[in-house]
Amino acid sequence: MGIVSEEEAIDELQKLINQVEGPLKKTFEKVHQGYLRENLSRFLKARDWNVSKAHTMLLDCLRWRVDSEIDSILSKPIVPSELYRDVRDSQLIGMSGYTREGLPVFAIGVGLSTFDKASVHYYVQSHIQINEYRDRVLLPSMSKKNGRPITTCVKVLDMTGLKLSALSQIKLVTIISTIDDLNYPEKTNTYYVVNAPYIFSACWKVVKPLLHERTTKKVHVLSGSGKDELLKIMDYTSLPHFCRRGSSGSSHHTQSVDCFSVDHPFHQQLYSYVKHHYETQGQGEPAKQGSFHVGFPEPGADGVQIVKTIESEMHNLENRNGLGKPVDDRKVSP
């Protein structure tokens, strides 16, 4: 008998996943944090509500978590603190606040991230720690505060500084995005793209047709810094620092704190949380330098095609640009 509703699909997947035991069951509890049906729904959405495919995806995710010891990653600080500062300076991500509906607002400096101050393993470790802190600390806390399940976030992508040289970072970005696609599906409600230069517009034009409609509907390219549009869903205090310029009405506000900085309250709280959990495990020795190695999943055929398309388009832009004005200096509107 075919599945005729989303609720029935969730019921079917729940029956299947109830059969898992041992380490898989334990790590799944870390995933759903008491919001079982909402999290089963995420995997079903990622597989177009095909129960069998969603079941396979979820089992693969749970095995990855067990094999890579993801449950303990929030007790593995990146040390020394100077190395963590280097990671933060070159992998620009932070949390600036919450939407009026209670969703965490994550800011990502796509254009200015250099990923050149640490090994790939530290960047992956840091990214997963932020994911796990979001899912195991922030979202459950906001769910309780708001009296309803809050299981997603919004992301504001700052394209300032995006250049053709970003081609060298595609491999690392692909690793991180593949980890998210396979193991943290449907965790982002909406992507807002701001400060987009011409190079982004050109790449988005060729990549958009390759993406699932479910994904493209989430992406909103905003004009300029996107401030006016973002203020419709969040207060000024939750705007990422790079969105607070431009438009009227900001002169009476104080200068915002850079939410990418290691000194921002979000990163201080996250780092303190990880250090505390390391220390409370009864470790006799100080944490030693050494990245937390995680298995890197192979990107699917669609992911490979998207990367090749981006590489091809960026090479075309480079060839067309010649000795003219740098294409990454030209701003575009949505």
From TrEMBL:
InterPro entries per record: CRAL-TRIO_dom, CRAL-TRIO_dom_sf, CRAL/TRIO_N_dom, CRAL/TRIO_N_dom_sf
PROSITE patterns associated with the record: CRAL_TRIO (PS50191)
Disordered as annotated region, ranges: 315-334
CRAL-TRIO domain ranges (all copies): 80-240
Any matching Pfam family: CRAL_TRIO
Taxonomic superkingdom: Eukaryota
Cleavable signal peptide: none
Descriptive protein name: CRAL-TRIO domain-containing protein
